Amino acid sequence: MNNPGYCSDPDSTSTNDTVEITGVTLDCSGTDDSSPTHHDSVPVHNTSEGDMKAANGAPHLMNVLDDPAPGVGTYEDFNTIDWVREKCKNRDRHREITSRRKESIWAWIRSISDAFSGWLLMLLVGLTSGALAGGIDISAHWMTDLKEGVCLDKFWFNQEHCCWTSNETTFQDRDLCPQWRTWAELITGTRTGPFAYIVNYLLYVCWALLFSFLAVSLVRAFAPYACASGIPEIKTILSGFIIRGYLGKWTLVIKTITLVLAVSSGLSLGKEGPLVHVACCCGNVLCHLFTKYRVNEVKRREVLSAAAAVGVSVAFGAPIGGVLFSLEEVSYYFPLKTLWRSFFAALVAAFTLRSINPFGNSGLVLFYVEFHSPWHLLELVPFLLLGIFGGIWGGPLHSRQYRLVPAAQDHTAGPLSGGGGAGGNRSDRRAGIPPICTPA
């Protein structure tokens, strides 16, 4: 269990069943992950001789509710966390709170608040992410229309909202109204004509270049981690890797601002992937409000898994799809309680986004599909054929890939594989038994 990236006492040693942290040995031999209230307390023996005499050799619980010892509980940048150590710390903290809950009313309230802190944190993550997603959608729509003109009466309105109540619009020119002025109309006084077209085109390009330049400059100067979508790095962090500052407050601010600028510039990119990064930044920042999630890296990754589901929920308006995305694609550690909390956070985020109504159609996405009439039988035939052809072609494809697995094992194992040639015994490989690798 020795982790080179974990800042601990250099004199401490560890075995397979114990963890020793600055003179305190914690027994973590239990492998179950059930509630600690149904088991005996894990004995922690102080290795200091003076403390052992003071305690008469009686086992006691390590007080992890207080501040951690100097040099313990932190990881260096670009290192992996110790999953067993973090799980043991959280289990001992839970036992400590449970053992004290009957001492006073304050201790009982503290244990209740600790039990509901996870749901409260999910509520805050959903509200914050939904509000930020709504602000990003509204700002991006306004800045996109700003490249073409401005609303003179209320400059904070985009073109659609500016002409919403105008009685002078027609079906052909529904986005044109006296309140909305193009840049050519403001500069040259005319709306149509070759010169007006050139002026509008040049100003459109200038606004797009300005938005792109501001986005790149802010990222390079203040938050280099705010670039790209962030999903590959989030998958790495959820697998136990430490990247300091990638989900920090400054990254959240710059990511939110530059996402609006990048989308408004007209570049060939979207906000769906970055919204996952924004939601994970919200989850990581809000973790500092609760001690249970601030001091434990494993518990924090439970929140980040739920935040990834929230990001997909506000990006596509699909709470269930967000939970499945977090479960199947990005999460390395996903217990059952995280599944329900992720779904709750995704629902809260979707409800918040719909309450803001950034698109004006009471929907969660820009292109909302409404089903006013049922499908006709003839319209279902292409979908039926699509399913049939998918099954016909998918079966041989997966069968071929399965047959290529032994060849891939032979290629990767090479001369290190034993058992009658490269890759081991062929019958063992067909039976799903991995080859035994021995030194050459």
TrEMBL record:
One term of GO molecular function: voltage-gated chloride channel activity
Superkingdom of source: Eukaryota
Recorded topology in the membrane: Multi-pass membrane protein
Biased composition (Basic and acidic residues): 35-52
Keyword Hydrolase: no
Region (Disordered): 28-55
Keyword NADP (UniProt): no
Name this polypeptide is given: Uncharacterized protein
Organism: Synaphobranchus kaupii
Species classification: Eukaryota, Metazoa, Chordata, Craniata, Vertebrata
